[in-house]
Design a protein that fits this description.
The complex is a heterodimer. Chain A contains twelve helices and seven strands. Chain A is an alpha/beta fold. The radius of gyration of chain B is 19 Å and the shape is globular. The chains are: A alpha/beta, B alpha/beta.
Chain lengths: 325, 347
Amino acid sequence: MDTSTLTGLYRDMWLIRAFEQGLEREFEKGNVPGMLHTGLGQEATQAALAWHLKATDAFFPDHRCHGINALAQHRHGGDGERVMAELFGKATGVCSGKGGSLHSADPAVGNFGDNAVEGSYMATVLGVALAAKMRGQPNVACAIIGDGTVGRGEFHESLNMAAIWDLPVLYACVNNGYAISMPVGEGHASADIVDMVQGYGFESRQLDGNDIVEAWTVVGEAVEHIRSGAGPYFLEFKTWRWQGIFAGEFRPEAEVKYWKEERDPIMLAGEALAGRGVDQAELDAIERETTDLIEEWIAFAMESPAPDPVKATADVYVGWEVDSR
Amino acid sequence: MTAADTAAPKRAARTPRKARDRVRKVAFTRALNDALDLAMSKHDEMFVIGEDIAEMGGDFGVTKGLLAKYGPERVRDTPLSEAAIIGTCAGAAMVGMRPVAEIMFADFIAECYDQVVNNVAKMHYMFDGQFKAPLVIRTACGGGFGGGPHHSQSVEGWFLNVPGIVIVAPSNPVDAKGLLLASIDSDDPVLFLEHKALYRSRAEVPPEYYTTPLGQAAIAREGSDVTVVAAMRMVPMALEAAEEAADAGVAVEVVDLRTIRPYDAETVLASAAKTGRVVVANEAPKIGGLGAELSARISEECFSDLKGPVVRVDGLDTPIPFSVPLEDVVLPDAQDIAAAVSTAAQY
């Protein structure tokens, strides 16, 4: 990886971090309704995926998806602020505020939308991939999932059908160690998800999800493999989420300290860049610029109007109007 | 309404005139097979998918011959993976394909309930109209043949409370073909219910392409004394009861809903207001289903026109037992409808 690519990825990871930290602050102030699941600590995984997926590909974002949604929107649409506005439930959001954190989509940038019921789009991704294959398009259909999704039946139905039909699916499993509070090794037959996947017979690989160089390289290889028509690919990113559970932190203090202080993907990338002779001033400027940009997006979201009430009954059906009484 | 729905006039259950000299008696299953064949010729973006639908032609033969004509890319057998079947349809529909799934027995929809309820039905709404889900889920429903608790249920009630899904429920071969073609044309997701007891029913079905509009009921028989509102197998039973009532001097009007969601309230309420005496016939359990909805709506909106309370004919509040004599106890029949008509006629 050349230094300019690594610098670009460093910027992308900072965009995600600034987005999530800004969002957390606004959530605590009561400006963001609903629930909040941040991708803090998982920035390398998301930045690597966003880098290699084109607007003509399709990705189904996971439960901690704001970062990749914002990156894809920023990269392909130039309007990342609309992802922020969606989280605020505003008219200017990518789904006019009807989707929110867990149902934010924009097919123009390849974002096919999260589904808050874990595992659902493990099935949906098959259809997007099948359509691409039937039409002879070199597109990748990517399902980003957490380790918790491995418990769902659709996880296994999907891997089986992708295998028998040789579909262009990239499975990106973000193994952050816990399904809500259930440790991965207690909830599944193996703490290493790739061990469970191998029986399906297609390419699978486990990697360090906090090492942006490794993540970017491996995702690039997997995407090329799929585009060449060689069938599905399963990646397991070993990582760790900074956010605890709704009630607070439940993990051992030493574990929290290790991941935040020694395995922070942005810190690791910064050290790698410094090792290549990039000035600290340049790295500081990237942090400042991305943070400033996110503050602009937050201001945009705050100032945006609420959705028009007619939106509440719009688009239930294509062919019928719904009674608005 | 979709553009396709304007193709046929309202209450067009009868054979189009121009086709009359070419008509033939065709089974319900064959009419559905014709519809799939015609639709696959029309829509390059259409494929059919399900368990044992390709070489075998489906459990009831509805997809027979399609594999030979359209090939394995467009006529796809799957493993026993209902959630993956509907998910595949949903994803393909998101990018403009027009899939038709077969879920072998309606009871098995429980395996893909989340896909239908949380994914397919909500996709257009929650993503602010950016995606459509123009897919059809065909499935064999209903009891009366000793299928037991997991091959006999009427599932429409499971979906009545789900905005975004269209539920289509034909009662005869002519409508079956026209409604299936309209469902495939529709840009909304359609749950297409095929009552197994109707599969062998025959009628003169025009061989050409035609659509029967979604969301429009048909007056299956006109009458001025008592209205019976029904769908699927309850329609031929209601017509049988109507014959019996006619002998006793009671003129029964039978409203065939054809689409259960969104249903044609205008036609239902007009008939109820006209006769002032209403029977609602429904094979599913009484509580919380189609019969309950119709009874409530008619009572609310036609209260001053009604000469007495709505009379309900429903399945009992039980699972469907295997033994046929027990099943006969649980499921309503023409005699139950006839008795309800007699009750209503007294008002």
